[in-house]
Design brief:
Blueprint: H1 9-15, H2 22-29, H3 33-39, H4 45-59, H5 73-83, H6 97-111, E1 114-115, H7 118-128, H8 130-135, H9 139-152, E2 155-156, H10 160-183, H11 188-196, H12 208-212, H13 221-237, H14 249-261, H15 264-269, H16 272-319, H17 321-344, H18 348-353, H19 358-371, H20 387-400, E3 403-405, H21 410-425, H22 441-447, E4 448-449, E5 452-453, H23 455-472, E6 475-477, H24 486-489, H25 493-501, H26 513-536, E7 543-546, E8 549-552, H27 561-573, E9 577-578, H28 579-590, H29 608-619, H30 624-630, H31 636-646, H32 649-665, E10 677-686, E11 706-714, E12 719-726, H33 735-741, E13 750-753, H34 760-768, E14 772-775, E15 785-787, E16 801-804, H35 807-812, H36 814-826, H37 831-840, H38 846-868, H39 870-893, H40 906-940, E17 961-962
Parallel strand pairs: 1-2, 9-17, 10-13, 13-14, 15-16
Antiparallel strand pairs: 3-6, 4-5, 7-8, 10-11, 11-12
Helix pairs in contact: 2-5, 4-5, 4-6, 7-10, 9-10, 10-16, 13-16, 13-20, 14-16, 20-21, 21-23, 23-37, 26-38, 27-40, 28-40, 29-30, 29-31, 29-40, 32-40, 34-38, 39-40
């Protein structure tokens, strides 16, 4: 019998928690007529009350109320009210133990409850978890499913210890099945090649496995070839192609992570089946990771080549600037002379020679041709100068990728085959019949020559188009995670059809296309008519539409002058505190550190101080080595071990949710919002040191490489989601991820972004998934409205109308739109991946166009609302201001290493972002608690506080927090006598 505990103490308690809200109490404990009829058969009031209360407990949470245990007070009141018995009657209930026993037997007989026994239910309970344990080994998920299943079957729950043992055995059974599934398909040769991964690589101190899992370095030909060698080595293991589908992806990833954290010696100690299963999972995951990294390297190499060509073009033009200017001035004088000659009837050639000799004029024409750039002023011809860079890796790159293609890109795939053949045969000249339909007009003038295709430009063009086709999904790669066939990301078509037929689609819109379009069109026409009427009368609030465009009056500051005095007074009272003490205090309130469980055992970290040190090393960007030097008693080895086994994306996510939920429950946070609106924004951090080669360049942020941390913050200032992303990808790609995949109890209804956060695709998906989207759009007057065809004219809105809606294409692709939205909602695929692919699709792609058309409807409705509602503008402005203020706090916290991300591995970079968000969330919660105490202290000292001004306080200040110095983890002596530390003295006190 497995002895490892699956549930923490808090999770065990949560299984038997009583309903927390009045609505839940009413839903679970309202009696029907049959219930009341049976309850009324008992003569005495106390017996009716006792019988009814026991009925409630047996139904939910599914236990028998202890003989000496007092019932949950809200439940007792609700039951007493329903059966018209005074609450005090409980004190007289069951003075005879026999009465209580009789009631329990009667309840089981009348309502069908049965007692859980090891003989009849234990084995069945384990088997009921087989499918779920195949998908996850999270104890609380399994326990919750088990408990819910027992309640539905009216089986009274066993003790939490028994539930824990059932879950542990279910996981053990599932693990055995997984090991068998992954190893039964392995031949002796497979096992030999997997064992070889644990040997040292020739000429290196590293094992082959460690070498295979190294992150790519700089985007150049040499490092690309090295990374291709890794993929070739992984492919040489030649695992069965469908092996990754034999096990649920969650468990496969977990097994790979466990194996990745173990030393070769640890893996070698495992019995054969478990060792080979772990190594196979590692190979499957590494193959997908390295494949995607190679494609990303290719993308970045081409990006560098294009940037270099563009820069060379600009530099040449600048160097030629004086000569070009001289030529323009010279030809201006010649032109004037020719015009004068025509006017007077003089010889034009003599007119030219009056400016300069004919031989010199001929020479200047030749010089002008040399100085002239292409007619379209394109820099693309310079890309050929960098052909060698691509040539050095193109052959192994095309050989190692297993490309598959949609019909639309078959010509491009044929071009890849031609290029492969050229390298294989060492041929120099392109075949005359090489495919050319994929060549865009911009490239055609360089590729197509009188002697046939130019090989350099043909190759560069084909590889550039391959990059675009991979992004859009027209070409996909077998074994990739990010570049799979588009259809495989979505829920299976049969399952979607079943959900649609049973009305089980998890979407916020009517699934009937015609009904949906009629409702949206009616609302759109109503809003258009309203806005047009107001615009005609010049009554749009603080907005004016003229022939030259839209003008909106900027919002005034809404914070009254009296708020600043309260802000200063409360800030002066906040205690000075070290960041270490702050984290310890917040952990004492919330226990967020309990979520950093061991990857393999699921146990909590035994040394909380060591754990907090590792988290702080991420949050302040100090790193483990420097943190060990700054924290007495800590060593790098201890911190590194703890990070490897306890810190990962999911533990950071759940711990963050704990802090966000604590903020949501804090009554003082309600002054800032109800937790149902949010904003998101990207914050760029420069990539320096070893990370410089992994950073991406976005001209918006300058020429230096960097990473973007995209963060969602609630109206209560809680940063509930954070994601490290590529600065070269538009912010809008990641807006939905934070709203859909956070772990907190927030229920966001309305979301705000700046201009970079919106596209028409985002508008469409936001609406389908139940969010109101409200971006602050720069140059709103240039963002056009779309109106229904054959509708009335809206003369006052004409300067803003950009076209008519194509509802037919929405009708045509409606099932595909719903299937896509359902897949995103259910987490089958992330919203960011789908948005990135849809944004890369060619304009003729039906699904992308249909979704964009749906976005036109929602964007038009939003703009019309924006024109008519100053309140909406204020809400958006306030929400975005909170996000910008949070970025300032994050910048202050992330101060080490000059605020640069310097870790080369993407995993470590993600941990930096997650640690930063967790620490800022802790600061927000701590500040909120002490702001409430400061406001109360002002009241107690005779300084009345206007509650309407509390909304202007902010928990984002850090002046009172010491972020630097040695990091000592000593609990403050000031907390010994109470839960909170004292405020600073009042001024003058």
């Amino acid at each position: 019998m497995p002895r490892r505990s699956m549930l923490s103490a808090a999770e065990r308690n949560s299984l038997l928690e009583m309903p927390a809200t009045p609505n839940d109490l009413i839903r679970r404990y309202t009696f029907d007529e049959r219930d009341l009829s049976i309850i009324r058969q008992h003569r005495r009031p106390e017996n009716r009350l006792g019988f009814a209360v026991n009925l409630c407990y047996m139904r939910y949470p599914g236990v028998i109320l202890g003989a000496e245990e007092a019932p949950f007070t809200p439940l007792l009141r609700l039951v007493a009210e329903q059966i018209d018995v005074p609450v005090e009657a409980w004190e007289s209930y069951a003075q005879r133990a026999e009465t209580r026993r009789e009631h329990l037997l009667e309840l089981q007989s009348a309502f069908g409850f049965t007692t859980f026994t090891t003989t009849h239910h234990y084995r069945t309970a384990i088997e009921s978890l087989d499918n779920l344990a195949w998908q996850t080994d999270k104890g609380i998920v399994l326990a919750s499913a088990l408990v819910e299943g027992l309640r539905q079957r009216k089986v009274l729950l066993p003790t939490p210890e028994v539930i824990d043992r059932i879950c542990a055995e279910a996981v053990t059974r599932a693990n055995r099945r997984i090991y068998v599934a992954l190893t039964d398909v392995l031949s002796a040769d497979h096992r030999q090649r997997l064992d070889a991964l644990l040997q040292r690589k020739e000429g290196s101190q590293k094992t082959v496995l460690a070498w295979l899992r190294e992150a790519p370095a700089k985007p150049n030909s040499r490092h690309m070839r090295r990374h291709i060698e890794r993929l070739q080595a992984l492919q040489a293991i030649d695992l069965p192609a469908s092996m990754g589908l034999l096990v649920h992806q969650n468990r496969l990833l977990k097994l790979a992570r466990e194996g990745g954290q173990m030393t070769p010696a640890d893996l070698a100690k495992f019995e054969g089946q478990r060792r080979y299963a772990a190594l196979a999972a590692l190979v499957i995951e590494a193959t997908a990771t390295v494949t995607d990294e190679i494609i990303d390297l290719h993308d970045r190499i081409l990006g560098k080549l294009f940037n270099a060509a563009k820069q060379k073009h600009q530099e040449q033009f600048q160097r030629s600037g004086k000569a070009i200017n001289d030529k323009v001035r010279l030809y201006g004088r010649i032109g004037e002379a020719l015009l004068e000659a025509r006017k007077s009837g003089a010889d034009p050639f003599a007119a030219i020679e009056s400016i300069l000799p004919w031989e010199d004029f001929t020479a200047t024409v030749t010089e002008a041709k040399d100085l002239a750039r292409p007619a379209d002023f394109d820099f693309l011809h310079h890309i050929g100068d960098s052909y060698t860079t691509v040539r050095l890796y193109a052959a192994p790159f095309l050989a190692v990728l297993k490309l598959r293609v949609a019909p639309a890109a078959q010509d491009l795939l044929d071009a890849m085959e031609v290029i492969r053949d050229l390298y294989d045969s060492n041929a120099r000249k392109m075949p005359a019949d090489a495919p050319t339909r994929f060549i865009k007009p911009r490239w055609k003038k360089l590729v197509v020559t009188g002697d046939g295709p130019d090989r350099r430009y043909y190759e560069l063009c084909a590889l550039s188009e391959l990059k675009n086709a991979l992004r859009s999904g027209d070409i996909w790669v077998q074994g990739s995670r990010q570049f799979k066939n588009f259809d495989t990301y979505l829920i299976p078509a049969g399952r979607f059809d079943e959900m649609a037929q049973t009305g089980a689609l998890p979407l916020a819109v009517n699934p009937d296309c015609e009904t949906y379009l009629q409702e949206r069109r009616a609302l759109l026409e109503q809003q258009l008519a309203s806005a047009n009427q107001l615009a005609t009368a010049d009554d749009l609030p603080d907005a004016l539409i003229t022939d030259s465009g839209l003008k909106i009056t900027p919002l005034d500051a809404v914070a009254p002058d009296t708020a600043q005095s309260l802000i200063d007074q409360t800030a002066a009272l906040l205690p000075h505190i070290k960041i270490t003490e702050l984290l310890m205090e917040v952990d004492a309130w919330t226990g967020f550190t309990r979520h950093f469980t061991h990857l393999k055992s699921g146990d909590e970290a035994k040394d909380k101080t060591l754990l907090l040190t590792a988290i702080l090393a991420d949050g302040i960007n100090l790193g483990l080595s420097k943190m060990a030097e700054s924290s007495p008693g800590m060593t790098y080895a201890k911190l590194s071990w703890l990070q490897a086994w306890h810190i990962r994306d999911e533990t950071y996510s759940v711990a963050l949710a704990e802090l966000v939920n604590a903020q949501l429950r804090n009554p003082f946070a309600a002054h800032w919002g109800e937790g149902n609106t949010s904003s998101s924004d990207g914050q760029r951090f420069r990539a320096g040191g070893k990370a410089e080669s992994t950073g991406h360049v976005n001209p918006k942020y300058g020429a230096e490489p960097g990473r973007l941390v995209y963060t969602h913050i609630s109206d209560q200032y809680a940063p509930f989601s954070s994601k490290l992303v590529n600065v070269g990808v538009r912010d809008s790609t990641y807006v939905l991820d934070g709203l859909l995949y956070h772990e907190s109890d927030l229920r966001i209804e309305e979301h705000y972004t700046d201009t970079a956060g919106f596209t028409d695709h985002v508008f469409a998906l936001m609406h389908l998934l139940g969010f109101r989207f409200a971006p602050r759009i720069r140059d709103l007057g240039e963002t056009k409205l779309f109106i229904p065809k054959d509708g009335p004219e809206y003369d006052a809105l004409k300067p803003m109308i950009g076209g008519t809606l194509n509802l037919q294409i929405i009708r045509t692709h409606w099932p595909e739109i719903l299937r896509l939205a359902t897949s995103i909602k259910q987490g089958t695929v992330t919203a960011s991946l789908m948005l990135r692919k849809l944004g890369s699709y060619p304009r003729q792609n039906g699904l992308a166009v249909a979704l964009r058309e749906l976005g036109h409807i929602e964007r038009t409705l939003f703009i019309l609302d924006w024109l008519q509602s100053v309140e909406l503008r204020r809400r958006v402005q306030a929400g975005l201001n909170k996000g910008e203020a949070r970025n300032a706090l994050a910048r202050a916290v992330f101060f080490n290493r000059l605020g640069e991300i310097r870790d080369r591995g993407f995993e470590q970079q993600r941990y930096r972002a997650s640690g930063l968000n967790l620490v800022t969330a802790a600061v927000v919660l701590w500040n909120t608690v002490y702001l409430e105490r400061a406001a109360s202290a002002l009241q107690e000292h005779g300084q009345p506080v206007d509650e309407t001004l509390l909304q202007y306080l902010s928990p984002l200040g850090w002046e009172h927090i010491n972020l630097t110095g040695d990091y000592l983890w000593r609990r403050s002596a000031k907390l010994k006598q109470g839960k909170y530390r004292p405020l600073r003295p009042f001024a003058g006190a």
